[in-house]
Amino acid sequence: MERLAGSGGVVRVGHLLPNNPKIAHEPDVLRMCAQDLKERKILPINYTLQVITMESCNKFSGVEHAAYLHYIKNATLYFGPGCNNEMLVIGRLAPRWNVPIIAHMSGDDVLADRTAFPTLGSVALTSASEMARATLTYLQLNNWDQVGIVRAATNYNRLSVHSLMQICKKMDVKVNVVIDIEATLPPDDIIASGKLKLLGANARIIVVEVGMDIISATNFMLAVHRTKMKSDEYVYIIPWLSHHSLASKSQSSGSFSGSVGSKQLLSANQAMSNGVRIAVKRFQQMRNITFVKSELKLLKELKLVENENLNKFYGIAFNQQNEFIVMWVFCTRGSLEVNILFFRRN
């Protein structure tokens, strides 16, 4: 660690980033977090966080770059690499270098062994290996010793079925058939592939995990329904790792629903944002929410709408507590609803 004037130093974060457009802005987010720690005075005054980003998960490029970051850049800790095969290598090298490594993924079952990976920490919200054990326990409670598995055609090693197949071998649960499908494949194409016939001929208890969230299994389950395989003869177990949102977005209208039945999730409160006093409504986020360009345009227009009887829309936000937050400019005067009630009484 490079010392500065007085006590302190430079903490070099070796950021190993997969070549994935979905997380292309991750380096910017890390730098924003570092700046936020400094501005909120959480980071000691004489310490500086320096983020050094290099590629990973491309023919073990992350292993090469991890060594470069250690020997040339003197990295203080690692963040990444984002794939199991490189994590298994870098996770074993990190203790030799006496540096911590933070994995932002659920990881392989073997990564839970802290004797082999003593400096590895995980920030995954849900563990794939723990989900696999929970699924196995459910199978054992029902005395089901033969299963079929439906998994993603690519990147299935980051899902719980990858660990499930390993522990099933150890616990005498036979995996009769494994089929790979694309989550985005239309139901009719899944049927035409003939994989459902293969599945139906070899399994009655079927574990389906083709993506991080339960929505990924939609097309597969539609195909199952159309082929009359959704009956009492079959059991489908659908685990998922991603946390979904009860503040769900309608694909057609872009609207949000923040209640279950007639019961509201969380009550509103007040906060400050950039010096503006706002009213806040929190919802529990349990799925990834994305906005198309037309919806972003609509939200921008909504921020420009003003009415003397309506609180102005301020914006929406997400936080690390898996909360989806809707904000309005706080106003102490009566709302339109209050005014209507008042005039009715008078």
Automatic annotation (TrEMBL):
Protein name: Atrial natriuretic peptide receptor 3
Residue ranges annotated for the Receptor ligand binding region domain, each copy included: 30-262
A GO biological process held by the record: signal transduction
Compartments it resides in: Membrane
GO molecular function: peptide hormone binding; signaling receptor activity
Superkingdom of origin: Eukaryota
Main location per the UniProt record: membrane
Cellular-component GO terms for this entry: membrane
Keywords: Membrane, Receptor, Transmembrane, Transmembrane helix
One Pfam family from the record: ANF_receptor
Keyword Membrane: yes
